[in-house]
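User: I've been going back and forth on whether these two constructs are worth ordering. Before I decide, could you fold them both?

Assistant: Sure. I'll take them in the order you sent them. The first construct and its structure tokens:
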Amino acid sequence: MVVEPESTKAFVTLALVVAVYFIPTIVAAIRLHQNRVSIMLLNLFLGWTGLGWLGALIWSASAINKPAGGVAPPIAHAGRSGEDPYHELEKLAALKERGHITAEEFEAEKAKILSR
């Protein structure tokens, strides 16, 4: 079986054209861009216009918002043990003043907060 040089050249050319066409998608995938699927779809369906390809390339190279150090900041939960006890006591006092909790409930919660 003899492989003709023209068919090999055509295959290599096609592979290069496809690789160049999908550069924005490849860049987004390598950078783990949060919108890589959207970039891929823009590249796939509108990349042939040239403007869609350029837009996808710019989008794929745009900044990715990551927290410093690669770790997300902790989320503060109201009423959790990590919160300032004085702030929690102020909240409890406000609830008591508005009549949302009784004096007994206030004292019980206050004892829990102060025992931490």
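The second construct, handled the same way:
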Amino acid sequence: MDKEMVIDLVTEQMARIRKEKDYTQDRMAEVLGLSKRHLQQVEKNRLRLNWTQSAAVCALFRDSDILKGTLGDDPLEILEVVAHDELHLSVERTIGGKVWWRTSVKKGTFRLQQNVLSQHYRILDEENYRYYSSFNKEEAKRRLEELSQLSSPY
């Protein structure tokens, strides 16, 4: 996944995101800092959002079921990984990936999971704290190896 794909996915879902929130076009345009005409053109697929506008939609509507169904359970994480190529996080608790994630490798107390929608990877510990996210599988495996060695008592 890259910026263009995120832009396309968010653009395609604009009308549904707005309707899910029960916003008028006037209200949605105001919240996003767009003109109503621009929003109408986006909803009719005549214009695309840009990266900044797509990021604003993901940030302001991060709890949207439409966005979660399109980008995965944490739209902001997807944005960060796309923008930075990888994400070293301060350790943050997750719900463990029961819906949007499949575990591909376990190493010690850590596991590498892949998002079924965005295809990006993350590393969680046994208590579901997230340590790392990336689209690069080899880098994620390398980081998993490092983390498992750091946590090993031997």
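Notes on the second construct follow. The beta strands are 86-93, 101-107, 110-115, 121-125, 129-134. The first helix runs from residue 3 to 20.
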